[in-house]
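Continuing the batch. This is chain 6 of the set; chains 1 through 5 are on the previous pages. Same settings as before, nothing changed between runs. Recording input and output for traceability.
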Amino acid sequence: MKRRPADNSIIIRSVQLSDLEDMILLAPRTMLDGFICGNRLWRSPESWARALQDIASDVYSFGVVAVYVMLQHMSFYVSDEDPVADDAWRHILRRHISYFGDEHGFRGLLKHIGEENVFFERLIALAADFDLERPREPFAHWLLVDPEFRDLITKMMNLNPAKRISAREALEHPWFRQSEPEELELAFNSISRAMCHQHLHTSGGFWTSERPYKVHSGSTGSFPEEKGEEGA
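Output for chain 6:
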């Protein structure tokens, strides 16, 4: 951190964030399994499913935080007073799919969690819920957001953990490599003024192609009566 001589403003060039109360150090090539990690506002989709998680899950969560910091938009917020609060997990995961779920990423997420996971059918049912009246709202098409930032977030928040860029690749992205403080300040001011709800809706259903998966025979595709954020 240093001060800019011209106006004595503070310039921060390097930041590290950590939550020591909820942290684990993973050995190389190891993953968490069977845990729901973190706060529902920032949690990755594979963590909701208690599937395998590693640094790719942190990259996804960092993308959620970045959207909040730069756009003042809390993508997955559901108030406890909201009528849907008892089923918050359902509405939150629907937004994950709406904002960040292209066909290949969605297929990859389903493969990652596996058919035996209870969220396999739940995600399929949520994906089938989009139509002409309630279309997806892909973050990649939010027109008032800086294109480089959109590209970075889309790559960090691919639903398929195997296809997300790494933390190092994110730092090498052109948006992060805007090294001049004036450029960063300009980008921040421009993005902060963006109205997050004024973006391009897709036409048609979830994807332009037919739904890639069907609910398994013998299943109604309905959700069990569950409360709150746990969803299982």
